[in-house]
Design a protein that fits this description.
Elements lengths: L1 E5 L4 H12 L3 E5 L19 E4 L20 E4 L6 H6 L1 H22 L2 E7 L26 H21 L3 E6 L2 E2 L10 H11 L3 E4 L5 E3 L1 E2 H14 L5 E3 L4 E3 H12 L5 E4 L14 H7 L7 H15 L1 H6 L1
Parallel strand pairs: 1-2, 1-4, 2-3, 4-5, 5-6, 6-11, 7-10, 8-13
Antiparallel strand pairs: 9-12
Helix pairs in contact: 3-4, 5-7, 7-9
The chain binds uridine-5'-diphosphate (UDP).
Length: 321
């Protein structure tokens, strides 16, 4: 079996490369390293079942793929900046990979008669008026706000995925990913878990945006990867939420990280970013029924290896604590 994954050197993409590679698949990893990192795939480099194509998803031609006449069974489209700080820095690139990139990947899947999985996001629900979010909710999104480059790119990507399914009968999947964390996240990517852990390890103030009463529901990457693999194998074209429904305020998260790192850090309240969703929690009924999947790892259990990973990346931060 052979798969091509765009964004394969990113946080989730590289874990997906590992998942399939460990199961004997041939893995073609596409990444332009804008927000991905060679370090995430260094352990796979040079392996005969792993190929790295350093390019944008938008630039992949059928001939770019090694052995272009050999079939691809699966195309996973995971390329995109994903943290608010990164997509605010690269809004055009984010729109480009969500639109042109998704189209290229769909054309490749069509040509190979491969199953296509598009990495969508809870962001397509915007600042939701329905809680928890079911897949039938259409969302509450500001189409011209700072986050729109990401939200609308992903909404377009869902639309073109459905169009390829309806018009060209491509076997498509849409996974709506809720906040996910774990080893290989970047310390500087601006998301709340890397920020809080690196701040706590360094004994610096924990930057809580707004009052800290906004909520998120955090999924450990291993649960997410298992959900995506199940969706690729036995899902259908309708979108599926994959995430952990246990909901926390950012204040609760900050206190948990301080406790688990035994840090002396204090809280520093900072302005809330524009259009920051107030609440987010997936309704995962569809994933349970369709895939027999549900997350198994609690936030406390998942934070342990995540904190250990950040400590190993930044030993000086631990010493400074
Ligand atoms: N946040 C925070 N402090 C930080 C980074 C983020 O309080 O240092 C908040 C942010 O305002 C949001 C939540 O944490 O309400 C999750 O932010 P993140 O960037 O991780 O992901 P999002 O769910 O917004 O895409």
């Amino acid at each position: 079996m052979r798969l091509l994954i765009s964004g394969g050197a990113g946080f989730l993409g590289s874990h997906l490369c590992d998942y399939y590679h460990q199961r004997g698949w041939n893995v073609v990893c596409v990444d332009n390293l804008l927000t991905g990192s060679r370090a995430n795939i260094a352990h796979l480099a040079g392996h005969d079942r792993f190929y790295f194509l350093p390019m944008r998803a938008e630039d992949v031609h059928p001939e770019s793929v090694p052995d272009p006449h050999e079939r691809l069974d699966l195309v996973l489209h995971f390329a995109s900046a994903a943290s608010p700080e990164h997509y605010l820095e690269w809004p055009i690139e984010t729109l480009s990979v969500g639109s042109d990139g998704t189209r290229r990947m769909l054309e490749l899947a069509q040509r190979h008669r491969a199953t296509f999985v598009m990495a969508s996001t809870s962001e397509i629900y915007g600042d939701p008026e329905v809680h928890p979010q079911t897949e039938s909710y259409w969302g509450h999104v500001n189409s011209i706000g700072p986050r729109s480059c990401y939200d609308e790119a992903k909404r377009f990507a869902e639309a073109i995925t459905m169009a390829f399914h309806r018009s060209h009968r491509v076997d498509t999947r849409i996974v709506r990913i809720f906040n996910t964390y774990g080893p290989r996240m970047q310390a500087g990517d601006g998301r709340v878990i890397p920020n809080f852990i690196t701040q706590a390890l360094a004994g610096q103030p924990i930057t809580v945006y707004g009052s800290g009463e906004q909520t998120r529901s955090f999924c450990f990457y291993q649960d997410l990867v298992a959900g995506i693999a199940a969706l690729a194998e036995k899902g259908g074209p309708e979108p599926v939420n994959i995430g952990n429904p246990n909901e926390f305020t950012m204040l609760e998260l900050a206190r948990l990280v301080i406790e688990m790192t035994e840090s002396a850090s204090t809280l520093e309240f900072c302005p809330l970013p524009q259009d920051d969703p107030r609440r987010r929690r997936p309704d995962i009924t569809r994933a349970k029924q369709l895939l027999g999947w549900e997350p198994r790892i609690s936030l406390r259990e998942g934070l342990q290896p995540t904190i250990a990973w950040f400590s190993s990346q930044h030993p000086q931060a631990v010493e400074a604590r």
